[in-house]
Amino acid sequence: MSARVRVKKRKKKKSNVLKWVLGIIGVCLLIGGVFAFYIFKQVTDTAKEIHEPIVDRPVSEKREEGKHVEVEKGQPFSVLVLGVDEREGDAGRSDTMIVMTVNPNTNSSKMVSIPRDTYTEIVGRGIQDKINHSYAFGGVKMAMDTTENLLDIPIDYVVQVNMESFKDIVDAVGGITVNNTLNFTEAGFTYPEGKISLTGEEALAYVRMRKQDPNGDFGRQDRQKQVIQGVIREGMSVNSVLKLNAILDSVGDNVRTNMAYNEMVDVQSNYRSAAGQIDQLYFEKGTGDTINGIWYYIMNEEELAAVKNELKTHLELEG
Fold first, then answer.
1. DSSP string, 98-152
2. Can you tell me whether residue 96 is helix, strand or coil?
């Protein structure tokens, strides 16, 4: 065999190997593209499924007239988290009412729980009653309007969570870790003091316990905030595709929000670091009072004013 023939055969082999390599790369890119499209479609489909615009409340009345908060520009915003316990034949109660303000300029968030028995004006109803009844009377809109009136800040977004199924979301993120300050047993589960890991069922019982806590509903509020922070923390660290699918399925079944998909994208891009630092605010100086045979929590006016001012400052609003 001549040298020229051997050179041609070597070149042909190299050419075939190159074609195989390029072919494998092409297939990998194609699979990656299809996979990326699948993930994108799963996320967008879930975002559309949970999006429920509040038609008769497009913007907060405490924002400039007709102007919605501009998350695409990194403007601080607020969100009301409603943990709704719905029962058959009943509109349900928003037993969990947590307001969060998020400021990307300070890379921080603030979170405050509103005691469910708080005696306040139910906006749109014309009466004074427990704040958690606002959801039962008028759904999400009335709950947002009433909370906004109490705190004197715009409530831009709402996230409504079915508390009975909240355990599915906790399981979807792979469970959470909380720092428990009270040794107790609830619903057959034992919760020792210290850092503990919780499954979905354990987390649900953890946030519902109230009677054994010397701080009553205030202790329960702290546990609710711990669990929400745990879900946020674990959700942000998700790197498993299977876990992502489970999260999306759980969210699609149990969560509703007026935040549109494009706003979610902006929040993910511009506000991610703000979720890393969550400062807790508290209502704990109020008093209990019985009115017409019903017990209510009466806010301490000085404490309420201090919380209002702190939230307004965090939202970069004028006095």
1. EEEEEETTTTEEEEEEPPTTBEEEETTTTEEEETTHHHHHHHHHHHHHHHHHHHT
2. strand
Report in angstroms the alpha-carbon separations of 253 from 50, 81, 160, 168, 188.
8, 16, 11, 9, 27
Report if residue 34 sits inside a domain. no
CA dihedral in degrees (233, 237, 243, 248; nearest 10)? 60
Q: Does some domain include residue 103?
A: yes
The answer to whether residue 7 is domain-embedded is no
Residue 274, domain extent:
51-314
Q: Rounded CA gap, 162 and 229, in Å?
A: 17
**Residue 249 main-chain phi, psi, to 5 deg:** -65, -45
- 233: tokens are 């923390």
C-alpha torsion angle, residues 103, 106, 109, 112 (rounded to 10): -100
How many domains does the chain divide into?
1
* CATH number of the domain to which 295 belongs: 3.40.630.190
Give the HSE-up count for residue 309: Cα atoms under 13 Å, Cβ half-sphere.
7
Is 23 contained in some domain? no
CA proximity to 168, closest of 204, 196, 195, 197: 204
pLDDT 10s per residue in the chain (319 long)?
555 545 455 555 545 544 444 444 444 344 334 434 444 555 676 667 777 888 788 788 888 777 888 889 899 999 998 888 765 555 566 778 989 999 999 999 998 989 989 999 999 999 999 999 999 899 999 999 999 999 999 999 998 888 777 788 888 888 889 999 989 999 899 999 999 999 989 998 998 888 888 888 788 888 888 888 888 777 766 555 556 667 777 777 778 888 888 888 888 778 878 877 788 898 989 998 999 999 999 999 999 999 999 999 999 987 5
pTM: 0.77
